[in-house]
Amino acid sequence: MGSDSQFMAELVVRECGEVFTGVTSLVDVGGGNGTMATAIAKAFPHVRCSVLDLPHVIQGVSAHESVEFAAGDMMEYVPPADAVLLKCVLHNWSDEDCVKILTKCREAIAQGAKAGAGKVVIIDAVVGSPTHSQQVLEAQVLMDMQMMMLFMSKEREELNWQKIFMEAGFSHYKIQPILGMRSIIELYP
């Protein structure tokens, strides 16, 4: 995932920098070694970045001067911030678990952002878009089968995502395709 994170980080900061407009603090939930958070911190020095991941994941990770690391479980607590980032995290979880995770993220932005200005940024697959080529649709089916076999989870269509978002207490969202089947989804309370 490290090389994928590096590639995706470069793409996101280059092509989708407007996502970070107005953001002064960001928590990368499930951010591993901090590749994505480090790229964001370098590209947007005004954004204070941190990574939340399990203790065994961040143990021994080389700290970057502009990224803090916190050990914790996203099912229990997400630190307060203007924005919470979930890159390729939710497709590993059931719909019910996604609602739990996103509820914790909504609580974090409610505590960390000014007067409802926070957001959750998801980088994940949104399958079934009519704008996708046949090759992308075939890759989506393959990825969906892998997620079912490995994690008892799935890739999701926009309507599946919308149901999860509303159940987690979000009022609206915006989807921006960025690469193949991956999109940036911005969630707002």
TrEMBL record:
InterPro entries, alphabetized: COMT-like (IPR016461), COMT_C (IPR001077), SAM-dependent_MTases_sf (IPR029063)
Origin superkingdom: Eukaryota
One protein family per Pfam: Methyltransf_2
Keyword annotations from UniProtKB, A to Z: Methyltransferase, S-adenosyl-L-methionine, Transferase
Record flagged with keyword Methyltransferase: yes
Any one GO biological process: methylation
PROSITE patterns: SAM_OMT_II (PS51683)
Domain O-methyltransferase C-terminal intervals: 3-171
Gene Ontology molecular functions: O-methyltransferase activity; S-adenosylmethionine-dependent methyltransferase activity
Identification of the protein by name: Isoflavone-7-O-methyltransferase 9
Source organism of the structure: Aegilops tauschii
